[in-house]
Write a structure and sequence with these properties.
The chain is an alpha/beta fold. It has 4 helices and 14 strands. The longest helix has 11 residues. The radius of gyration is 17 Å and the shape is globular. The protein starts with a helix and ends with a strand.
Length: about 240
Amino acid sequence: MNKKLIKTIASITCGLGIVATIPTIASSCCDNENEWPINAIPKDLYDIDENGALIGLKRIISLDEWYSYNTMLIPKNVTQITRNIFTEDAFQFFPNTLTQLRFEEGSKCKIINCDFADGYSFWEYMEFPEGMETIEGGAFCAYGDNINNTKISLPSTIKLIDGAFGTDNIEIHNIRFIEWNGLGTDPETLLVDYPFGYNNNFQNLCSTGTIKVKNPKNGYTSEKLLAWFKTLPGFPQTGWTAE
């Protein structure tokens, strides 16, 4: 393997903590401090600075090893994920086996900085923890031609989603399920700068999908969120339902 490729893979691996596991395993894997999902990048590979920022991984992961992981599980002591951990060029070598983003139970992570996984379009499930407050612009923008049925699960603590799940490719329509925990009002102050699109607020949505408000507050149901979304430019007027 040439040095340029090794360097590129190192830059890729330097920030993603990945867990390959089915959802039930991932959600229960952290009850025991000594347990970690079988297909996860080992917890001790994460490079976390003294302030709790995830800044990379501690060693190069070979392609053979890298392809054995499919989920990123962020350790609970990470307080933020730094920006630009992965460059756009690095994604040409990024394995498409990575499909899930999860956070360890008890996560302290409050912010995902911009351009964290910018350009990677193979996510199928992203579950953000309670306590997460900000997901910055470009964090999960997709540029490829892959189409997934992506589910996004948002916490009640979110304060800003700034263009985080957008795309500038009109052929990409990845997001099919949006779940929002503990929502109690229209999220007009939270979703800014084309949260699920680029030139269009909802360009990245599939033509059909599902909205769910989990543990609603103030009687704010899934139906109310869907009705509010439909008032916004670009949201599909048919094809999306409330669960």
